[in-house]
Amino acid sequence: MISAELLTLVCALLLHVALMCLFALRANLEIGPSYTLGPRDHAPPRPPSKVTGRLQRALQNSFESLVMFAPAVMVVTLAGAEGGVTTISGWVFVVARLLYIPAYAMGLSPWRSIIWAVGFFATVAMILAAVF
Fold it and tell me: Could you count the other beta carbons within 10 Å of the beta carbon of residue 67?
């Protein structure tokens, strides 16, 4: 049976996949598949809309957040340190990432940064809970 922490990693990865698909769909509709399917050797014929640009930056941030969260879950799992704190931390991270995407797309400032910080510190809490 999968642990709660591994389930949060699965949810975070599926959320990342959904964000990739959303960005790709918008980019293809706005810029056109002749550019997005090509080698992209030059700038696009027109820039993406503000929302699509924000989704692209949210996608990049999603990669960056997973670089920390996935190893944190692995440390917890391999150390056998699953527990209340690590489970709650994992779900807080997932919910924060779920809220982060629309907050970024809508340009909600400073909420986007606050939501990001909540997810970041949930990851740090997970790491610390696995060690101590």
Answer: 9
> What angle (nearest 5°) sits at the alpha carbon of residue 52, between those of residues 111 and 48?
135
Per-residue model confidence as pLDDT tens digits over 12-47:
999 999 999 999 999 999 998 888 888 989 998 889
Tell me whether residue 51 is exposed, middle or buried, using C-beta atoms within 10 angstroms of its C-beta: 0 to 12, 13 to 18, 19 or more.
middle
Residue 100 Cα to chain centre, angstroms: 8
Cα(30)–Cα(33) distance, rounded to whole angstroms?
9
Q: pLDDT tens digit string along 75-84? A: 999 999 999 9
d(CA 98, CA 95): 5
Cα 90 to Cα 96: distance, rounded to the nearest angstrom: 10
Nearest to 72 by CA among 63, 62, 81: 81
Q: 54 with 100: CB under 8 angstroms?
A: no
Task: Give this prediction's pTM.
Answer: 0.94
